[in-house]
Amino acid sequence: MHVTVTRAATGSTCATIRRDDGVVLELPGYDRTFRVPHDLAHAVTERALGLSRGVFGSIAGGGVFDNMRVVAGRRPRHDAAERSRRLLAANKAELGRAELIAGVMHQGVEHHTDPLPRAREAWHAFTTDPFPCSDDEFRAAAADLAALADAYTATGTVEFTWPTRLTSPVPPPVVKKRRGRQ
Fold first, then answer.
1. Residue 182 above 70 pLDDT?
2. How far are the Cα atoms of 71, 145, 163, 167 from residue 1, in angstroms, in the given order?
3. Whole-model pTM?
């Protein structure tokens, strides 16, 4: 999946996402007061933590959030809305973790502070699982986000590829059992 984050005419951000299935989506941002685009913070953080069920892994798997719209490319599948609903419902917990950790990363890079201690604290507020990457990997992701934010500030656009390995699987449909005589 290919993602391009650009400065919108309103001063905010807009992510144009070309999924591997050929559908092109637009994800508007609401962060015109920040140097670091929030959606970029999501992508960098989720990639560093290997979160396939966060925002970008969910989008790669076919999830479409309410504020997104199809803008070009292939026509979505006939069952795209139902698949998206199932996928986003199944990923609800990890989407919450991703939102919290990406917010911590965003604030740290925006204010030039180390986001790692707060990120670990936030992670453990959700789960007893070990933090999913090393301190060095997380700090490298923060440095990567800072460099991408600088590039965005200089040019108004930044591009990256979302790893295929971090595409969320779509849960199978629930088959309802019929009652009564068959």
1. no
2. 15, 18, 7, 9
3. 0.90
